[in-house]
Amino acid sequence: MSTAREQIFSSVRAALAPLPERTPRPVFSKDVAEPKWLAAETDSLALFQKRAEATGTKCFTDMDACASWLRTQAVRVVYIPAPLTHLVALCSEFCEVTSEYSRTRVNEIDAAFTPSAGAIAESGSIILSDESTPDRLAALAPWHHIALVSRAEIHRTIADALAAMPADPNLIWVTGPSKTADVEGILIQGVHGPGAQACLIL
Amino acid sequence: MAEQKVELFARRLDHGVQKAVHNNSAAGTEKRYNVLGTDYSAPDDLRRLAGQIRQHSIEYLDTYLEQAEQSLKRQGAHVHFAVTADDACRAVSDILQKAGAKKVVKSKSMISEEIHLNDHLGTMGIESVETDLGEYIIQIDGDHPSHIVKPIIHKNRRDIAKSFEREGLGDYNDDPETITRRARVFMRDKYLQADAGITGANFVSAESGRLVLVTNEGNSRFCLAAPKIHIALVGIEKVIPSDADLAVLLNLLGRSATGQQLTVYTEFINGPARTDRPSGPQEMHVIFVDNQRSEILASDCREILRCIRCGACLNVCPVYRQASGHAYRSVYPGPLGAVLSPLLAGKKFKELADLPKASSLCGACNEVCPVDIPIPDLLLKLRNRGHQEHAPSPGTPPMGAFAKLASSPMLWRFAMKSNKVMNLVPLEKLPLPYLQPWLKTRTLPTWRGGEFRSWMKSRHKK
Fold first, then answer.
1. Binned average pLDDT, 10 residues per bin, chain B of 462 residues
2. Cα(B3)–Cα(B401) distance, integer angstroms
3. Å from B344 to nearest chain A CA?
């Protein structure tokens, strides 16, 4: 055990020892921070779509519509991990399709489909994990990122998603495209991550 | 006339900068107010709950810090402890040197500013690049952040365009979108070449060992995608009991900081990446930094350790809006900084003891604080401490003569009556330098001192 560790723990204990009483851990219900408008929303899928669109995430419910959108975006190389054969066929019509995400092609691959670990209706967030999304870079570096969200994996609330976090070294909630307002408070999308964030609900 | 340093800075501040800081801060306050009002019928109840969660966390820090350490280790992270800022810097460079790392990408972290990590890495011959757009501009300009969430609130697009031109990032172009795209291209290579990624942490859950990081740009995610080593610098006070507490804290953090329900990227890191994955750090280090925090915990200002660094108190503060962040001469500006910075200064407390005075005690900072920190009370406690320690106090008129006068009934009576002379003296000629600026634009009412006493006396006689 390092001395720094002991020193810090002994200072912390010494600081807390004179307290006549300590603040108890508050008891609160899981839904305490739910927005007041949430109760009226009964359909999680519809709510997710509404919230996602509000934060700038495009939602598609069929592959053809999603592929048509990509076609309008002048995409050159799209990464589609197997086994989405129908999607591969659709995209092959207008751009190169690769099932390998190679580091040497980070700047070339300008669109990527990756599976997700679900979504959150309350906030319109997409959940990515290392288990579901094998390459973190693939879901981040391309200008267009389309997460594949399974209908059955949409959590209704943020608290639900927190309670159901799988054991995974890295979970990330993606709520809209990458953005900044650092320059004069002006909102710009696509700083380091995707400038166009989308999801395909299957 | 002697003036407070913050006031002096504000007076000399460029008008354009002052206006930018004021408008951007005011916009932040309004966004926060609107989103909390739209989403919650009793946002203050939620703030108080969050305050209790954080107060509980720091008052049981002995328990939770140890639990966090064990949870992190269980997940395969290396845990280090650093007592001082220097220790923390050394811990980072030791890890990097051991791994032979020469290039580092950094995600925005206030604690790394606090310990001056970039300067240290520079002297060790390690290249460290700030990846948050604002922080990168601060870095190339050799500047300091003037806001904890919006580091370049004091710069305009022309300043930035000039800096980018100077750094060879293209010809002069002050279009914010072009500036952002150029940073994107430039950073790509930096991420891919970096040996390690350095981040802070917004929260650490003791129970699960999850480290929570929020960003809007996605830069922290990039720092944890390409490089093979992750180093997280974490103040010991960032620990919370469990993941369930995040439901309250995350909901308030985004709304208070930028008016967002959630920040774009909310990342939960639970150990090094799996070995069967092509991206993500295979090695994870967490450095818990004390740097005066245990001292603050022992003081009567421990509530400041609840702070979750949202910046709402900066945005709402009338003094911050006028003075901007650099006026506070420290890493943490605004009301939170006026409390935290002198405390973090440790033995150099006196040098920053003027900061708690740069406040009208209007209480707005407390009203917007997502963890309900009683900032005005803490400012008063620190003013008192400054007085006890005889910290220099420019701008405060000497009150010794008044104290003598007010403690002797005879002298007081005499003064009350004799001051009628004041009605005849031209005010601008008074030899009181402290009052001159005030009297320039104001007059005094006619002196009527002693009349109450006379009235009381005549009443008793009846």
1. 82 92 96 96 97 98 98 98 98 97 96 96 96 96 95 95 95 96 95 97 98 96 95 98 98 97 97 91 97 97 98 97 95 97 96 94 97 98 94 76 88 85 76 74 81 85 72
2. 21
3. 15
Chain A: residue nearest B107 by CA? Answer: A192
Sequence letter at residue B33? Y
- Which member of A16, A30, A168 has the closest CB to residue B270? A168
Residue B197 to residue B442: CA distance in whole angstroms = 58
**Please, are residues B203 and B209 in contact by the beta-carbon 8 Å criterion?**
no
**Nearest CA-CA distance, residue A152 and chain B, Å:** 22
What DSSP string runs through B246-305? HHHHHHHHHHHHHS-SS-SEEEEE-SSPPTT-SSS-SEEEEEEE-TTHHHHHHSTTGGGG
B201 near A CB under 8 A = no
Domain that holds residue A139: 44-201
Which residue's structure tokens are 């002991």? Answer: A6
CB B330 within 8 A of CB B355: yes
Q: Which of B29, B45, B39 is nearest to B257 (CA)?
A: B29
Residues of chain B contacting residue A177, judged by C-beta atoms under 8 Å apart: 264
Mutation for A interface: B262, B276, B306, B371, most A CBs within 10 A: B262
Tell whether B280 lies on the interface with A, counting CB pairs under 8 A. Answer: yes
- Residue identified by tokens 């922290």 is B220
Contact B50, B371 (CB under 8 A): yes
CB contact under 8 A, B218 and A192: yes
B264 contacts A174 by C-beta, under 8 angstroms:
yes
**Cis peptide preceding A83, ω within 30 of 0:** yes
pLDDT one-digit tens code per residue, A128-141: 999 998 899 999 99
Q: How far is A139 from chain B (nearest CA, A)?
A: 10
CATH of B42-291, one of 3.20.20.80, 3.40.50.10420, 3.40.50.300, 3.30.565.10: 3.40.50.10420
Q: Where are the domains of chain B?
A: 42-291, 302-388, 411-461
Smallest CA–CA distance, residue A92 to chain B, in Å, is 26
CATH of span B302-388: 1.10.1060.10
Q: Are strands A77-79 and A125-129 parallel, antiparallel or unpaired?
A: unpaired
Chain B partners within 8 Å of A121 (Cβ) = none
pLDDT single digits (tens) A68-91: 999 999 999 999 987 788 899 999
Shortest CA gap A103–chain B (Å): 8
B177 touches chain A (CB under 8 A): yes
Cα(B103)–Cα(B96) distance, rounded to whole angstroms? Answer: 9
- Which CATH number does the domain housing residue A137 bear? 3.40.50.10420
Tell me which residue in A11, A26, A168 faces B56 most closely, judged by beta carbons.
A26
Q: How many CB atoms lie within 10 A of CB B387?
A: 12
Q: Could you tell me which chain B residue has the CA closest to the CA of A15?
A: B298
Whether residue A168 lies inside any domain: the answer is yes
ipTM of model: 0.96
